[in-house]
Amino acid sequence: MTTAPPHKRAATGRPTVPLPPELTVRDAGPFDPPTALTRLTEQGPVHRVTMLDGDPAWLVTSHELARTLLGDPRLSSDRFRSRRVLEKLPQPVRARLTDNRARAGSFITMDPPEHTRYRKLLTGQFTVRRMRQLEPRVRQIVAEHLDAMIAAGPGADLVRAFALPVPSLVICELLGVGYADRGEFQERTGKLLRLGTPVDEVMRLADELRAFMHGLVRSKRAEPTDDLLSGLIQADPTLTDDELVGMANLLLVAGHETTANMLALGTFALLEHPEQLAALRADPALIAGAIEELLRYLSIVHLGVVRTTLEEVEIAGEVVPADATVLVSVPAGNRDPYQYPRPEVLDVNRPRGPHLAFGHGVHQCLGQQLARVEMAVAFTGLLTRLPGLRLAVPAADVPMRDDMLVYGVHSLPITWDDERAAAPNGGV
């Protein structure tokens, strides 16, 4: 594949993967992978591509191969250990990515054994007990936001009124962030995840977010409560403030942006597939399987998972040199026709099977069970309490998040049959 013309998103200096736009822009529709990516998936499991900065990369489109590689210790999660990659970044970004204090606790870009230490600590906090304790609060948060929507409606932007605040409040509960502070981090994280944000603003926003979290860490050290951050402090008193800040910021950003976009994009997909929506309304017991199908079908991690080879590796017959970039495409793997019959079809009755939405291997998403609880409660509430739920604008007018690290919708104008809006019930 030849290098595409320079794309406007590649000029920001962000430490992201500068993929050609034909592999990232969803030209086939809001829910489907790019046409070029689908063609590659049909042609084979791995492909050498050229990124916008001129570097070669190996793009993995096979579901089976993706799972194998995400568990292969010869592929590093720390892309920025490569001098080749660092030299392409602006000096302020390069300095930040090589600063041990700034990187402390950000375990998503770490390999074992360093990653193992943080992962083990966090696994001890994401307990079944804590998830069970959170579920009634999730139900309360969902019910309160539906109440507010119904009182002000009919009609709302689902993103602002529901999909964003619900997981934001849940992650606040988990970390011990005060309700009044949630708007502060929502605004900052939204800008941080926008691919077009200038590098100087990225640095400023990151510093502000770190300062905010440093204040929270200090307060939890002084007065611990029953939250995840206090639990980490008690579990390992040797954790530094920088480590706690890095871990908390990672969970904060990942814990609300991903679920928020799955809620909004998933609702959009169901509204555009009325037969699937009708099936869920007819049989609420399908909701758990439907969530897995939406996670597979939509793939909000649309730029893929990046790994760097630590040594020469043979991948499906391709010899990949050491210090090379391997891109594991989540949208391609989740639509692999060798893994799923008719993968382009959204089917809430599809038998539950493995997908790549939460990753695989040692970096598989820690909060996936909480995300499932949030989605189950939220989708159930939307379907039971908003009869006649539908788009308030043509589907073509819904603004998509092609310009973000996490795919979804910027807004989702909806309406419903006001006279039949339901009171809270056992589903919520």
Provide a short characterization of the protein structure.
The chain has 428 residues and is an alpha+beta fold. It has helices at 35-43, 63-70, 83-86, 91-97, 100-103, 114-123, 128-152, 158-163, 165-175, 182-192, 199-222, 228-235, 241-271, 274-282, 287-298, 330-333, 368-385; strands at 46-50, 56-60, 75-76, 156-157, 305-309, 313-315, 318-320, 325-328, 390-391, 413-415. Helix content is 47%, strand content 8%.
Could you describe the 3D structure shown?
- The protein is an alpha+beta fold and 428 residues long.
- Helix content is 47%, strand content 8%.
- The chain has a five-stranded mixed beta sheet. Strands 4-10-9 form a three-stranded antiparallel beta sheet. Strands 6-7 form a two-stranded antiparallel sheet.
- A hairpin with a 5-residue loop joins strand 1 and strand 2 (56-60).
- Residues 1-15 have low confidence and may be disordered.
Overall SS class:
alpha+beta
Order of helices and strands: HEEHEHHHHHEHHHHHHHHEEEEHHEE
Stretches where pLDDT is under 50 for at least 5 consecutive residues are: 1-15
Radius of gyration: 21 Å
The global form is: globular
Distance between the termini: 49 Å
Largest sheet: 5 strands, mixed
Name the average pLDDT.
87
Number of helical segments with 4 or more residues = 17
**What percent of the residues sit in helical stretches (DSSP H or I)?**
40-55%
Strand order across the biggest sheet?
A: 1-2-8-5-3
